[in-house]
Structures are given as C-alpha cells and as structure tokens.
Amino acid sequence: MQKFIEKCKLTFNNIQGGDNIDYSKFPPEDRISNSKLKLINPKEDGSVEKFLKGWDNSYSESLVLGTAVHALFLEEKDHVLSDYTGKPSGKCGYFLDLLCKLRKENKKLPKEKRLSSQELIQKAAEEADYYKSSFTRKRFLSTMKTGLDYYKKLYKGDFYSKEKKIIVLPERLGESTKKCVASLKGNHVIRSLYKSDELEEKEILNEFPLFVEITVTMPNGDTAVVPFKGILDSIVIDHYNKTIYLNDLKTTSQDIDYMMDQVLDDESFNGAFGKGHYYRQFAIYAFLLQMYMDHVRLLSNYDIKCNIIAVETVGSHRAGIFPVNNAYIQEGIKEFKELLVTVVYHKLYGYDRTIEENQ
C-alpha cells in the first residue's frame, strides 16, 4: 500500500481564507476536513462504513465543555457565559435544547406541514438519543419537571442577546469552564504570546477558516479534486519578529504533563498528542497556512511555529503551552496523504475495493 501511496501526487490550488471564501462550487457533503479523515483511519478506529455514515452527533459532555472553553477564550468578544445554573445536565438538557429548537422551527411551517406535539417530542428524543426507544409520557413528565424552568426561559428567549451569544451550561460544567478559562488567561507564557504593544505589533486571527482545492492524481493518471476546509483555532502574527504562531487549544481530562509524547514514532505514541493524531491536524494546517501567507498575505519571509495550548478540565485546571517539533509535522504529512488518497481511491473505484488490490 505504501508504494502505491508514494506514487500518488497531491496538487494544492486556489487557497482561500477568512471571510472571502467562495464555497459555491462544492456542497458541504463533498468537503473533506481533517476530522472527517479520522472516520476512515483504522488507527483511529475508523473504517469505510464509518466514513460513509458520517459523524455520530450524540451528546458528549467533553465536547460541550471544550466548545465553551474555545468560545470564551478565543472569541470572548462574541460570547458570554450565563450565570444561570438551572440547566439540567447530560442528555436531559440536550433534549430540552432540541425540543425548543424543533418547536420554534415547527411554528414557522404552514399548518398542514406542522408536526404534532407528540411527534416533536419523539423527534427530539431520537436526535438527542434520550430514551428514544422508551420515551413514555411518564418519562416526558419527569423530564419537564426537572427542566421546566430552564425550558421556559429558553423558549421565551431569555438566553438571547444581539451583542453576544449567551452560553448556558449545567452548574458543574459551568464551574469547570470558568476555571479553565481563568487558568488560560492567568498563564504568563500564554498571555505573553498574545500580548501586543508598540514594539511587538501582533495580529491575532481566531477561528480562522482556510479552504483549498486538492487535486489527487493516481499512478495511472486518474484524478479527482477534493475540496478541503480547516478551521484554525488561533493564529498570532508577530510582525516585529516576522514569526507566525499556529496555536491549537485542547481541553483534556488528563494531566497536561502527558500531552506530548516521549517517543516520536507512530507505533509507540504514548501522549495525548500522538494518540489523538493531532500531528496530522498541525501538519496540514501549517502547510495550508504557509501557502495562504505566501500567496495571499505575501508574508513569505515569516517563519511558522506551532504550539499546543492545553488546559486540564479536572483537578487543578492547569494550563500550559507545548511547542510542536518538525518530526511530528513530517509524520502528519505522511498520514494526511495516505488517508486522502484512500478517500479518493474509493470515490474513483468504489467503496468495496481496497488499495491492496492494485499492488
């Protein structure tokens, strides 16, 4: 398989970024992201079946917490954490969120197309994976008893603001989120990275999208164009030192001392960075960022450095920053090419075939 991959060629064209991206040529279902590649990577428990099925949108407490920390640290001017603590935890709160959303959408439909109250409740339960096969009237009444105050406020729009998006979390998650954000802001190394003054003029771009068209050429000359999109957590452009920092924020339930690996070998990664295949994300993002800065921003004489910014979601909520060295980047480029070629191979020749058949 490796020899086949090596004979394939990737060509990157039409790099776009920020608010000027034109997605019109490629519908969302055709776009590939680094996270979607995970679904086909056997080393991340991926498979062709999982890739075709797509993401499972079930409730994840760690994802809710991570999303909130990202928003409040990287996009503080657009988000605020509500001091309301009455939202039910887990799938119960998620069910109420979906029920409110579906109910409001349903009201906008013509009467003949509207779902009944029972149909809306069942649909919300199924989407939230909340007792979906046994969501009885008794279960519904128990849920509403627990979350009625929250649901009423949500439906009335008490958590809506034109100025900022209001984030509402269950009490325990809200407290953990506050501690994570406070720890990130209080870390002097992280703070100095973002600090700008008259001498060190810094440009900060958070949640920055990049989009590129990748042409994959097979050994026999067959080609396919893959639209690739990435959202870069944070870019700090230090114009004084001509350095661009690509930073990715990770929340972890583990000790941050175990974020990086002791051995740079994909067969023996023992840290969260290696086990999570974050090196692939950094590799392709750093490559696209360099391309964007060279051809769009015309900053080709700037160096790019990569950092993981990590914060513990439990315990003392320590935060830290960890440089990503070039050995990781090289490993990531290799894995990215292998997975992208695998996706294109299946699209060209069928999902019931394998690359090994061409060896």
Overview of the structural elements:
The chain has 359 residues and is an alpha/beta fold. 42% of the residues lie in helices and 20% in strands. The protein is globular and about 60 Å long. The model has no long low-confidence stretch (mean pLDDT 92).
The computed structural class is alpha/beta
Q: Tally of extended strands?
A: 8
**Rg from Cα:** 23 Å
Residue fraction in strands: 15-25%
Describe the largest sheet: 6 strands, mixed
Low-confidence stretches: none
Measured distance between first and last alpha carbons: 7 Å
Shape: globular
Mean residue pLDDT = 92
Which strand order does the major sheet show?
1-4-5-6-7-8
Count of discrete alpha- or pi-helical segments spanning 4 or more residues: 12
Concise overview:
The chain is built from twelve helices and eight strands. It has helices spanning 2-7, 34-38, 48-53, 61-74, 90-107, 117-128, 137-156, 171-186, 188-194, 272-275, 278-295, 326-349, and strands at residues 9-17, 79-81, 165-167, 202-217, 223-238, 243-252, 303-312, 319-324.
